[in-house]
């Protein structure tokens, strides 16, 4: 059986000509933001990638078809599908087999980006080690994926809904380079600071691209995690966001939220508790990541030419 990957004409042309392409995930659209801001943001982020000299490839599974690059009507359809599945590594094959529609997490987007020949991917936050994971064992498949799939993922750090220190420990154990762009401290999504030093730091997109190529030359599998701090004017400082996160976590515990529902539940509650401010920050940081990813992709394409 051959797997069919439906690549949009825009993305297919860019790949055929070795022009830079940036993969974008879709769980942020279906499970990370409310409609219509999810659609507006997805379209805006695609435009940011174009304005920064690369081609955007939003990735999802629609009616069992792998789609790399969503045309405007497909993007709108997905953004308006509130019951779209959340597909990670474990779910992909079954969803495709059953002809289902689902958004891809960081892990699943990496897998499909790799399949399409795309080496750079922009998102907001990655999954990680949840607080209390010593009891729940809730550790996102995103971390393992970074260890085995050769894609550079640009995020804004990890949310403090996670146990950030343990997330960094697991990434170190898995041999995943965690590179913060332009500062010494690892950022915490809405906040530029996390209180934790970044394992690695690079200040040039070119060096980030070269590091990925050097990893491959060394015969090391896997990708890199790039942490790009949220722009200062859009940040919610740690001291402000921490009590809100604590409240959302307490509610999740009280309501027995588990498994794949944990992250979407927390994001929604934090949105409500900040009266939408967390969403404005989220949009600003995703756009910022898309722009950096486009420059990294351009450096990679230049190197490969
Ligand atoms: N963290 C965020 N925003 C998100 C997600 C995580 O700050 O939108 C989404 C991403 O798609 C990520 C997924 O890959 O949730 C992780 O889910 P889980 O923890 O269930 O693996
Ligand atoms: Mn989980």
Outline the secondary-structure elements.
Blueprint: E1 5-7, H1 9-16, E2 21-24, H2 27-32, H3 37-51, E3 55-62, E4 65-68, H4 72-79, E5 85-87, H5 92-98, E6 102-104, H6 106-116, E7 120-122, H7 133-136, H8 141-148, E8 152-155, H9 164-173, E9 178-181, E10 200-202, H10 205-217, E11 224-227, H11 238-254, H12 262-273, H13 277-304
Parallel strand pairs: 1-4, 2-3, 2-7, 5-6, 7-8, 8-11, 9-10, 9-11
Antiparallel strand pairs: 3-4, 3-6
Helix pairs in contact: 3-4, 3-13, 6-8, 10-13, 11-12
The structure holds pseudouridine-5'-monophosphate (PSU) and manganese (II) ion (MN).
Keywords for this entry:
48% helix, alpha/beta, 305 residues, Indigoidine synthase fold, single chain, binds manganese (II) ion, binds pseudouridine-5'-monophosphate, eleven-stranded mixed β-sheet
Give an overview of the whole structure.
This protein is of the alpha/beta class and 305 residues long. The chain has a single domain (5-304), classed as 3-Layer(aba) Sandwich (Indigoidine synthase fold). 48% of the residues lie in helices and 14% in strands. It has helices at residues 9-16, 27-32, 37-51, 72-79, 92-98, 106-116, 133-136, 141-148, 164-173, 205-217, 238-254, 262-273, 277-304, and strands spanning 5-7, 21-24, 55-62, 65-68, 85-87, 102-104, 120-122, 152-155, 178-181, 200-202, 224-227. Strands 1, 2, 3, 4, 5, 6, 7, 8, 9, 10 and 11 form an 11-stranded mixed sheet that branches. Helix 5 (92-98) links the parallel strand 5 (85-87) and strand 6. The two termini are 33 Å apart. The model has no long low-confidence stretch (mean pLDDT 95).
């Amino acid at each position: 059986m051959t797997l069919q990957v439906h690549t949009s004409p825009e993305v297919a042309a860019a790949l055929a000509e070795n022009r830079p392409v940036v993969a974008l995930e879709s769980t942020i659209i279906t499970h990370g933001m409310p409609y219509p801001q999810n659609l507006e943001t997805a379209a805006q982020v695609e435009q940011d990638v174009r304005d920064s000299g690369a081609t955007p490839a939003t990735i999802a599974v629609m009616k069992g078809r792998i789609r790399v690059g969503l045309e405007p009507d497909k993007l709108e359809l997905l953004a308006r599908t509130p019951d779209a599945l959340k597909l990670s590594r474990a779910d992909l094959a079954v969803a495709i087999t059953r002809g289902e529609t689902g958004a891809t997490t960081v892990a699943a987007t990496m897998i499909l980006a790799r399949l399409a020949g795309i080496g750079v991917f922009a998102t907001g936050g990655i999954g990680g080690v949840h607080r209390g994971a010593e009891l729940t064992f809730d550790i996102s498949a995103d971390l393992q994926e970074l260890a085995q799939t050769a894609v550079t993922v640009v995020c804004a750090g990890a949310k403090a809904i996670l146990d950030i220190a343990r997330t960094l420990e697991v990434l170190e154990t898995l041999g995943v380079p965690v590179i913060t762009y332009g500062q010494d401290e690892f950022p915490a999504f809405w906040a530029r600071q996390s209180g934790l030093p970044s394992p690695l730091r690079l200040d040039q997109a070119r060096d980030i691209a070269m590091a990925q190529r050097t990893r491959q030359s060394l015969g090391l599998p896997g990708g890199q995690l790039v942490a790009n701090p949220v722009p200062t004017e859009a940040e919610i400082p740690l001291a402000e966001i921490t009590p809100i996160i604590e409240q959302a976590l307490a509610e999740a515990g009280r309501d027995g939220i588990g498994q794949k529902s944990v992250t979407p539940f927390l994001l929604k509650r934090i949105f409500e508790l900040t009266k939408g401010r967390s969403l404005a920050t989220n949009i600003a940081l995703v756009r910022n990541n898309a722009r950096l990813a486009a420059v990294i992709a351009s450096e990679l394409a230049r190197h490969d030419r």
